[in-house]
Design goal:
Layout: H1 3-17, H2 27-62, H3 68-91, H4 96-110, H5 112-116
């Protein structure tokens, strides 16, 4: 399964459970959906960041390692972030597979100097 398949699965889920989100008959409808995704994504990144902060504080004050419960919660938040990224990509009608490969190629060229200095 590739990201294109996952994007399609997410779009089918969204159309089944949130059909009004995809009723984009005007620029304003599109912007309302885009704002919803941006706010949701920011919220999920905030939840992930808050867990990282709490984990860091816990380790600083109590020492020790990272309990599996924290890892599970962090993984859940990353998954929520990924879902919002999928929704945003679908809303923007982009193929994440192609976009990722294009950006990876660009970044390889951009950061080549760091590799050359090793």
């Amino acid at each position: 399964m590739d990201i294109k398949d996952i994007q399609k699965m997410q779009k089918e889920f969204d159309l089944e459970y949130f059909p009004k989100f995809w009723e984009l008959s005007s620029v304003q409808d599109f912007m309302d959906s885009l704002k919803h995704v941006a706010i949701g994504l920011a919220g999920e990144v905030g939840e992930f960041s808050n867990l990282v902060k709490k984990l860091d504080r816990r380790i600083m004050n109590l020492g020790g390692g990272i309990e599996e419960e924290y890892m599970d919660r962090l993984r859940d938040e990353v998954t929520d972030i990924f879902i919002y990224v999928l929704i945003a990509a679908n809303l923007l009608e982009m193929n994440l597979d192609d976009a990722f490969l294009k950006k990876l190629k660009y970044n390889r060229e951009r950061f080549q100097e760091f590799r050359d200095n090793d």
